[in-house]
Amino acid sequence: MSMRDLRNLALSALAFGVLALLPLYVSGYILSIATTMAMFTVLATSWALFSGPTHYISLATAAFFGLGTFVTGLGFQTLPMWLLPIIAAGLGAVLAALVGLVTLRLSGVYFVIFTLGLAELVRQVVTWVQNRTGQRGMYVLTSITERDIYWQLLGMAALVFLVGWLIARSRLGFALRIIGNDETVAKHSGIDTAAAKILLFMVSGAAAAVVGAMMAPRYIYIEPSTAFASILSFQVVIMALLGGTGRLWGPLAGVVPFTLLWEFISRNAPNQTLLLLGIAFLLIVYVLPGGFVGLYDRLRHRYGQGGQ
Amino acid sequence: MFFILITGLLLGGTYALIAMGLNLQYGVARIMNLANGEMLVAGGFAAFWVYTAGQVSPIAALLVVAPVAFVVNWAIYRIMLRPLVKRAKSRGALEVDSILATFGLSFALVGIMTWFFGGGYFNYSYLSGRIDIFASSYAQNRVVAFAIASLLAAALWVWLSYTRAGLRMRAVAVSPDSARLVGIDVPAVSALAFGLGGAVTASGGALISMFFTLDASVGILFTMKALIIVIMGGVGDIRGTIVAALILGIAETFVARVIDPGLTLAAAYVLFLGVLLFRPQGLFGRTPT
After folding, report:
1. CA of B127 to nearest chain A CA: how many angstroms apart?
2. Per-residue pLDDT for chain B (289 aa), expressed as one digit of tens each?
3. B107 to A121: CB separation less than 8 angstroms, yes or no
4. What is the pTM of this model?
5. Number of domains in chain A
């Protein structure tokens, strides 16, 4: 570990410490936005862990997230609270492994299409099971406050950043960067490309499921159509790409402005949120390829500081 | 059982037309168009609008819907997608870019359609009588939609198989690089294919609106189904598309009737899984060497 790494670690720890104090001195409304930001930070960062280096666009976040909320919804009365995110992580990883085994051996298009409908598929199956067993929605009534959820998510964010940092330094991270640059080269240098991709997709899926499990008490009432709302997947993709997936902090740079913008639009013109989402996608493709990270790197390069 | 088979075939016929539109766009123009379903909904909206406002039959509306959709899609390709094709370093990069761009287009279109028409469901009753085939009765509008869809699909197939323009299109589908070498204007053919694909899908939408309740945000579901059909049938393979569409229509109808109407996407996914596991090159595709 170099001095630079140590300095970055210390700075990140300090930043998390300051953010952890946030609930003590802000109002309920700001705390709720901060909680949403923390949620999207975990989701977008863990999404970028997989999709950043491999360029495989995953649209399955909502499926994992919904799975997590259902774990909490079904288990919060009988199981200890600390166990639920762990179960959710396990189930999320299993679902990701299954999807990965089917699609990640093939080209990226199959993966995109499969994940595109995954949330809707799981929703249909869950609804069907609920209809057969005569269940409807579930009430998740707990003593957990928004503050607790915020702290949980912040802890999760710290964990995801740490995992991302460790992966980037590991052989797995190196293998994924090679796969992203040229899969044929990766295969020929002896990397088990499918295994590497599946492994990282499992990390990403598990993280999204944990977030779902943590967020469930906030919704109070859970039903399939809200838990598996596929818009979440798209929001995550937008935020991660807007920030840029080239660096670990990239998605965070997209989450903060986009959450504020989304909040503003959905308060003032709730019917225009989809239009906003569409324009944001187009903007990223045509104006900001590489996101804010790409822009930052170009600017640094232009003004002569990017001497790496 | 026989009833399910016929109903499924009737549904599959319309699916075939929609999927042929997507297949032209993906197979020839090499654009994975995720806004395909929104073109379908737009076609349905147009048919709905002329029928309720002017009592014009949805079939006559096709005469307007198809050319307008062609021009719109052609322009989308020239203005939005051509620059992406030009800047793409590889097929993979183009795929990521075109997926994101057409997603953006898809959401923007849903947003605009919700703006104009509201978020509610819309349907109208046209040819709502029954028709008897082999001692069971079927809705007239479904039968008519199937007949017209088959007619259009057949016309498209003949055009692709027996005309020079169709030959050019198939050449680009097989290999854009080699097509260029024999003097085919690949960008022009791609734009033509993209526009034609959009026109075919929008016509399918106008036909589907005769018997299916649509709303502004349902497009993505049709995109999903069309994608599954195209992959199942094989990219660029018209015959495969038709067979896959009929299989999907029958499978969906079977699941909806026998198990639960809420599980239609699950039915499509089971087929998709089977294809991915056993025949990722498509039903009639050859194993790549």
Report:
1. 32
2. 788 888 888 889 889 999 999 999 988 888 889 999 999 999 998 888 888 888 888 888 888 899 999 999 999 999 989 888 888 877 778 888 888 899 999 999 998 888 887 777 777 777 667 777 776 777 888 888 888 899 998 999 899 889 999 999 989 988 888 888 888 999 999 999 999 999 999 999 999 888 888 888 888 889 999 999 998 888 878 888 999 999 999 999 999 888 888 888 888 888 888 888 888 777 777 655 4
3. no
4. 0.89
5. 1
Residue A145 lies in a domain: yes
Inspect the interface and report whether the beta carbons of A280 and B272 lie closer than 8 Å.
no
Residue A247 maps to a domain: no
ipTM tops 0.90: no
Q: Which pair of tokens denotes residue B139?
A: 């809705």
Mark yes or no for CB contact B269/A117 under 8 Å: yes
Question: Which domain, by its residues, includes A149?
Answer: 3-229
- Left, alpha or beta for A115 (phi > 0: left; psi -120 to 50: alpha)? alpha
Q: Is B277 exposed, middle or buried (0-12, 13-18, 19+ CB in 10 A)?
A: exposed
From B41, B40, B62, select the one nearest B51 (Cα to Cα).
B62
The C-alpha torsion from A283 through A289 and A290 to A294, rounded to 10°, is -100
Q: Is A271 on the interface with B (CB under 8 A)?
A: yes
Separation in Å, CA of B175 to nearest CA in chain A:
18
